[in-house]
Design a protein that fits this description.
heterodimer; A: 254 residues; alpha+beta; Phosphorylase Kinase, domain 1; 2 domains; 7 strands; globular; B: 184 residues; mainly alpha; Arc Repressor Mutant, subunit A; 10 helices; elongated
Chain lengths: 254, 184
């Protein structure tokens, strides 16, 4: 069994390989081989199940700390970020002009402050278009959901539900990470005939309870629905009816 | 001089500020409470700002977390020498095998242990994590709460990847043992 240069060094101990597999530290061929070893060995399979449950429990109960405003203020004044005598940069000047414009009109100010689902859908569609223009729409290609989930685990704090819908005619193609609303979000990529579907899990329970067609932008349809503390956005040039079918199938599989 | 400061401040905003939540998380689990963690993060930010010129340009998160870790360790040495218990890494392989031997043999993938872990309450799990030796605890926090890869963790804690792997493995084994012991 070998591991490639950018993964954990060779470890013969299967007890350590279970962790490396869980943490997505193995390249795809090694991960598949290790998974076979685990499946064939009930003791290792039990370990994997326990460590996975533990990791989920730790993540669910102890999310990353939030930085309180008073700490930001303390840090800013410690390093002199908001010293009044600092020469304003052009960026700061431009921002203050914008702020003045915003303040001078109540409605503009509201537009800055209100949650903006429109912005989310536009950014989701932009991400999808960018992905289609790239040489491939995924950063990580795999049709195996057991390798897609660990891939997210090594890159971002939350990893989404990964569901195999191949038998329903929506094969899993892989995954990538998009930036939506200044957050890195997990995106799954599915196929339908020659169409590509991007499914992003955006933080915030803002979407409708059931899959709903929200917008059509430049020929792309956007369907969204709430999933716990996140809102799923499915984007594709697939027709709205089939995209909604995809969304409902995803929502229904647990 | 003024221009230099302005550059440093801009670098600080770009390199350090995006990682403050990670900095606070690590400091909170190293010091054991939020108030001390805030002091550590403020002190770390100042240290990072003063040495921003030495930042290599890549791996901002590991760079910031390394500074936070060093600051937290000096803080712990000064304030509670008792919480720093050094661990022996030399015979990792044997210990892991000893610690895991026979423990799982009778269990199947969905089992009482996974169910216990799924509904473990927050304060019990918190107590179990707080009770881990510092080196095990930081590996677990960096991996499972903050999502760092093994290489990044190795960079932050200044240990080889193999050592990180075994610390993480032992942290997880001890946590499961502690959660099970609590229940009986």
């Amino acid at each position: 069994m070998t591991t490639s240069a950018n993964t954990a060094p060779p470890a013969q101990d299967p007890a350590l390989l279970v962790h490396a597999y869980l943490d997505g530290e193995l390249d795809t061929p090694t991960a598949l081989a290790v998974k076979q070893t685990i499946d064939a060995n009930p003791a290792l399979a039990a370990q994997l199940a326990s460590f996975t449950a533990l990791q989920n429990a730790v993540r669910a109960r102890f999310p990353r700390e939030r930085v309180p405003a008073h700490l930001r203020t303390r840090i800013n004044s410690a390093v002199g970020l908001n010293r009044r005598w600092a020469r304003p940069t052009w960026g700061a000047l431009a921002a203050s002009v914008l702020l003045a414009v915003g303040l001078s009109s109540g409605s503009t100010w509201l537009a800055f402050r209100a949650p903006q689902p429109d912005l989310v859908v536009e950014e989701a569609v932009d991400s999808h278009m960018r992905a289609l223009l790239a040489s491939k729409p995924t950063d990580f290609s795999s049709s195996e959901r057991h390798t897609v989930k660990p891939w997210f685990n090594t890159r971002i704090a939350q990893s989404p539900r990964v569901i195999d819908l191949t038998t329903n005619g929506f094969p899993l193609l892989g995954a990538r990470i998009d930036v939506i609303g200044a957050n890195p979000v997990p995106t799954l990529v599915y196929g339908r005939r020659l169409h590509v579907i991007s499914l992003s899990a955006v933080p915030g329970a803002t979407g409708p309870k059931d899959p709903t067609l929200r917008r059509s932008i430049n020929g792309f349809n956007a369907v969204s629905w709430r999933d716990g503390e996140t809102t799923n956005w499915a984007i594709s040039d697939l027709n709205a009816r089939e995209l909604e079918t995809f969304a409902r199938l995803f929502q229904a599989s647990n | 001089m003024d221009v230099q400061n302005e550059d440093d401040r801009r670098s600080f905003e770009r390199v350090v500020v995006p990682h403050l939540a990670d900095a606070l998380t690590l400091a909170r689990w190293l010091t054991g409470n939020r108030a001390d963690a805030e002091d550590v993060v403020q002190e770390s930010s100042l240290r990072a700002f003063r040495s921003i010129g030495q930042f290599s340009g890549t791996h901002a998160r590991s760079w910031v977390l390394t500074i936070v870790r060093n600051t937290a360790y000096s803080w712990m040495r000064k304030n509670r020498s008792a919480t720093l218990v050094p661990v022996e890494d030399l015979d990792d392989e044997q210990r892991i095998q000893a610690e895991s031997a026979g423990e799982y043999a009778s269990l199947s993938p969905k089992n009482p242990e996974t169910e216990l872990l799924e509904r473990v309450d927050e304060s019990r799990l918190e107590g179990a994590i707080a009770g881990l030796p510092t080196e095990f605890r930081e590996a677990l926090v960096l991996r499972d709460m903050q999502g760092l890869g093994y290489r990044e963790i190795a960079e932050v804690v200044g240990a080889p990847v193999g050592t990180v792997m075994s610390r993480l493995a032992r942290a997880r084994q001890r946590l499961i043992k502690a959660v099970k012991a609590d229940q009986t």
